[in-house]
Design a protein that fits this description.
Blueprint: E1 4-13, E2 18-24, E3 36-41, E4 51-57, E5 62-67, H1 71-77, E6 84-91, E7 103-109, H2 113-125, E8 130-136, H3 145-149, E9 152-158, E10 165-166, H4 169-177, E11 183-188, H5 191-203, E12 208-211, E13 227-229, E14 235-237, E15 244-246, H6 248-251
Parallel strand pairs: 7-8, 7-11, 8-9, 9-10, 11-12
Antiparallel strand pairs: 1-2, 1-6, 2-5, 3-4, 3-6, 4-5, 12-15, 13-14
Helix pairs in contact: 4-5
Length: about 260
């Protein structure tokens, strides 16, 4: 698989340091929720490595959610329509919904909302609207709210109480899991949140998939920079074994 030439088609500045970038190439952009692309701008040799981003949209144009936290992401966030980028993907393993009889519970934390928006819209298209729990530090970190509300039943949790309920995503998740209705949990966000969500689901004997984040340079399993240890102490590579994993493969069961 090689990088393809693409162009930025739309730049949508969001709250804080977030930007939604849409891009297109000669062929349609493909991929599934949870998969990612490696993206590099036309900025020369510095920074030399591409950056990994979950897909938010596919089709005639693809979309990624960029948070400016370093040099590469800051340069991407400053791009304009018509600028050139190089894209490798789709890469990795995405979310899988194999049991249509189970209600889908999507749990997002921070920028982890990106693949879950994609997944929520796909489920809605299939006639399976999800329950969406979105946790953020404050109202300024809640992104694309109206878009999520069009495809899912949205509950917002903020740590400072500036929007929605005050607390953590598990505060909203626990009573849902206690309901007798069959469900399945899909989560993406910071590692402490993923651990808490996974353990809550496993304790209730609810299937759970988690999307991990890890620094990576290649996206295809060559650099080994995204290695993580599963609950058996075996190495897994986020770029090719994941980024989506069954929660039980990392946590084994509830504590």
């Amino acid at each position: 698989m090689d990088f393809i030439a693409a162009k930025i088609t739309e730049v949508d500045p969001l709250e804080s340091d977030y930007t939604l970038l849409r891009f297109a190439s000669e062929k349609p952009i493909t991929g599934h929720p949870g998969q990612f692309v490696m993206v590099r701008g036309d900025w020369g040799m510095d920074p030399i490595l591409p950056r990994a981003f979950s897909l938010v949209e596919v089709g005639n144009a693809g979309a990624i959610l960029v948070r400016a936290v370093g040099k590469g992401t800051a340069l991407l966030a400053k791009m304009r329509a018509g600028d050139d980028i190089s894209v490798l993907g789709p890469l990795g393993q995405g979310f899988t919904q194999t049991d249509n009889k189970r209600q889908s519970i999507l749990v997002a934390g921070g920028v982890g909302v990106a693949p879950l928006i994609f997944f929520s819209e796909q489920l809605a298209f299939l006639g399976q609207p999800a329950t969406f729990i979105y946790g953020a530090r404050s109202a300024r970190d809640v992104l694309l709210r109206s878009r999520i509300e069009q495809s899912a039943d949205l509950t917002i949790i903020t740590e400072d109480g500036s929007l929605g309920e005050t607390g953590l995503v598990t505060d909203a998740l626990t009573p849902i899991l206690a309901n007798a209705s069959p469900c399945r949990v899909f989560a993406c966000g910071p590692e402490p949140m993923l651990k808490a969500v996974a353990r809550s689901a496993l304790k209730a004997d609810i299937p759970c998939q988690i999307a991990l984040e890890s620094p990576m340079a290649c996206g295809i399993g060559i650099c080994k920079g995204c290695a993580v240890l599963d609950h058996r102490g075996e190495f897994k590579y986020v770029c090719c074994d994941g980024p989506v994993f069954e929660a039980k493969s990392f946590f084994g069961g509830a504590e």
